[in-house]
Amino acid sequence: MKVKTTSLAIALALTTVAGGTWAAAKDEPIQALQAAKVTNPAKVELGKKLFFDPRLSKSGFISCNSCHNLSMGGSDNLKTSIGHNWQQGPINAPTVLNSSLAVAQFWDGRAPDLKAQAGGPIANPGEMAFTHELAVDVLQSIPGYVAEFKSVYGSARIDIDKVTDAIAAFEETLVTPNSPFDKWLMGDEKALNARELAGYKLFKDSGCVACHNGPAVGGTSFQKMGIVEPYKAKSPAEGRVAVTGKDEDRFKFKVPTLRNVELTYPYFHDGEAATLEQAVDVMGRLQLGRKYSGEEVGQIVAFLKTLTGDQPLFTVPLLPPSSNSTPRPTPFD
Question: The domain containing residue 52 runs over which residues?
Answer without folding.
Answer: 37-171
